[in-house]
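input
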Amino acid sequence: MGLCDFVVAENGALLYWPTTGRIKVLAEPASAGFVQELRARGVPVAVGRVIVATVEPYEITVLQTIKAMRLELEVIFNKGSVMVLPTGVNKATGLREGLSRLGLSARHVIGVGDAENDHVFLRICGCGIAVANALPSLKERADFITEHPYGEGVTELIDQLLASNFQPHFALDQTADDPGKRKLWFIL
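output
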């Protein structure tokens, strides 16, 4: 295992391996016609390999366009960002796919989040962490909430784990292959 085995990108729609530059697209992209129609309706969009992104308040126009074109797409929010993805694609599905390629379980993952698009992702992790600036609804479901916001909260978490020799003061499943050891993977 390396420092960073893979990256779940585009809100779960693709995997990227930094050491090799390999990219695995996990879903079909929205049609070019959908993107053209959004632009024709005045919606500023950024288009990735799969994801189509914009910002609030354009979510209404996005939803109207999806309905008018009779498409099966999902709108996911992230603190003012509006992301359009194929139905069922999210950070959790991307994480599961990446972990399955490594032969690992999400039970041994510490996930860190702050926004609407982190709910399902944190639910599947062995331990879900919300940073201090996380939305209240995410904090309600988190196993642990940091005292600091943003990256400072992540640093706080890592410092706590290092100080405790990776024996967190919050519950985390033990590994099946060696019940006496804990294996942790951070997903931010």
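quick obs: The chain has six helices and eleven strands.
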